[in-house]
From TrEMBL:
Keywords: Ligase. This is Long-chain-fatty-acid--CoA ligase. Its EC number is 6.2.1.3. It is an enzyme of class 6 (ligase). InterPro entries: AMP-bd_C, AMP-bd_C_sf, AMP-binding_CS, AMP-dep_synth/lig_dom, ANL_N_sf.
Length: 523
């Protein structure tokens, strides 16, 4: 079992930190406004709000939701992309002790409707100004426009559908028991599950991640990771606002928008998934743009595995270390990250954050020996309340004494850092040998013509074979046979792909996470 103290992680009094956390995420805007009401809190392309305006807008929008029948314990489904109206609706929902059901407007009609049916929201709010996809869903559901308000705060318009026939869940006074956000995971299976995250889950990660990054009022944080996903919600949005930073909201990732924001908008923190960093570098190279990010002090990669070749390329261009970390929706999300004062040359996901414990468990339930690979189990204030309306799945995932079984294979290195090897369900067994897809992906991603890759196992008679899917840089001439040869020079024979397929784009969730279940269907 590993505690979170390492030579490089700061010392924290965790009981005192937990006792000092705001009881509800809805307290964040009012606390920030009390400190400095006129400082800009949120920036969107066409509008911005000061801290006081954000606090006022939250009160006004909470009153609106109450008029629409929202009670404590109801679910409010927020269909949006990153925008001011989305953030205001999130806090307003939490202010009523309702659950914010964060839904990405880019989901298909079938995906969104399946979540709606399962969660039974009292109100669905659509960010129609900020997202054309939200507007399409609103039209499909026959949503009504919210009436104009007397106050001049411009948050963007939203429309709604209300259902008076749904039940409210019980309300808990304790922040560690009351659900704040309900997030449906895409999951490796493609079957979404509703993860219930408490106010304390989110406040703990918001506080811890912003403290470890030393976020403060002078920071401008580029928020392109979807706030409908836990990484964008807890670490980027809530963490930055709680620390007093300005959050620059971007509804979608485009390399040119990121380039311009870094060059001209004083962005000091840029967090993304590996694919975002890869595509930004490709964009700079393709157009011959010089790198310009005069205030960038912190760059971070998470959400999917980072490979060494991309890390080296990013650092050589950005001129700052590319930090890395690991988490999942069920752990709110952060489990580990590289520390600000101890950037790493390798692609380790860093130290387990203070207050969190980990174990490494073999398939037979026995604790792994030091340095051995096992399933990563996690316990701490970040572990979810459970899966909504799915007690069987909750019992299978969280033990009675609070250990979250992540389903990820990991090991602890000699220096106490964490290395993620892959998903236990994604392990490929080739001729009796274990092949971890991440190993093969790292080799493929190191090829200069490869933007990103994804490796899966394909069943053949009495065995499994390795199949790789790759996305190439524009104009690349490399052939699948040449990529197999490239792997052959760098990997043991049993790890080499039997087939490499080139796709125009790898199927990905809105977060940039590659959807391997779609690739299995292709294979």
């Amino acid at each position: 079992m590993t505690a979170s103290t390492t030579p490089h992680s700061p010392a924290f009094d965790i009981p005192a930190l937990l006792a000092a956390l705001p009881a509800r995420i809805a307290d964040i805007p009012a606390l920030a406004a009390a400190r400095d009401p006129h400082r800009v809190s949120l920036v969107e392309d066409a509008r911005q709000l000061t801290r006081q305006q954000l606090a006022d807008a939250v009160i006004e929008t909470a009153a609106r939701l109450r008029e629409l029948g929202v009670r404590a314990g109801d679910r409010v489904m927020i269909v949006a992309e990153n925008s001011i109206v989305q953030v205001v609706l999130l806090f307003a929902t939490a202010k009523l002790d309702a659950w914010a059901l964060m839904s990405n407007a880019r989901l298909s009609a079938a995906e969104l409707d399946a979540i709606r049916t399962h969660a039974a929201p009292r109100v669905i709010a659509y960010a129609v100004d900020a997202s054309s996809d939200a507007r399409d869903h609103a039209q499909r559901h026959g949503a009504k426009a919210t009436p104009a308000t007397a106050t001049p705060i411009d948050i963007g318009t939203w429309s709604f559908v209300a259902d008076a026939h749904v039940h409210a869940e019980p309300v808990e006074a304790a922040s560690e028991k009351q659900c704040a956000a309900l997030i449906y995971t895409t999951g490796t299976t493609g079957t979404p599950k509703g993860v219930m995250l408490s106010h304390r889950n989110l406040m703990f990660i918001a506080t811890m991640s912003s403290t470890l990054r030393r976020v403060g009022p002078d920071d401008v944080v580029y928020a392109v990771l979807p706030i409908s996903h836990v990484y964008g919600l807890a670490s980027v949005c809530l963490g930055s606002l709680h620390a007093g930073a300005t959050v620059r909201l971007a509804s979608r990732f485009t390399p040119e928008a990121v380039r311009r924001a870094l060059a001209y908008e004083n962005v000091s923190i840029f967090q993304g998934v590996p694919a975002m960093h890869a595509k930004l570098l490709e964009h700079l190279q393709m157009h011959g743009y010089a790198w310009s990010a005069p205030r960038l002090r912190f760059a971070y990669s998470g959400g999917s595995p980072l490979d060494a070749a991309l890390k080296a390329r990013v650092e050589s261009v950005y001129g700052v270390p590319l930090h890395n970390g690991y988490g999942m929706t069920e752990s709110s999300p952060t489990v580990s990250q590289t520390m600000l004062d101890a950037p790493r040359a390798d692609v380790s996901v860093g130290q387990v954050i203070p207050g969190v414990e980990v174990r490494f468990v073999m398939l037979d339930g026995v604790e792994a020996a030091d340095g051995e690979i096992g399933e990563l189990w996690v316990r701490g204030p970040n572990v979810m309340l459970g899966y909504y309306r799915n007690p069987e799945q909750t019992r299978a995932t969280v033990t009675e004494d609070g250990w979250l079984k992540t389903g990820d294979l990991a090991r602890e290195e000699a220096d106490g850092t964490l290395s993620i090897v892959g998903r236990s369900k994604e392990l490929i067994i080739r001729s009796g040998f274990n092949v971890y897809p991440a190993e093969v992906e790292h080799v493929l991603n190191a090829h200069p013509d490869v933007v990103q890759s994804a490796v899966i196992g394909r069943a053949v008679e009495g065995n499994e074979e390795v199949v790789a899917f790759v996305e190439l840089v524009a104009g690349a001439k490399v052939t699948p046979a040449e990529l197999i040869e490239w792997c052959g020079a760098r990997l043991a024979p049993y790890k080499r792909p039997a087939e490499v397929r080139v796709l125009a784009a790898l199927p990905a969730a809105s977060t940039g996470k590659i959807l391997k279940h779609r690739l299995r269907e292709l294979a």
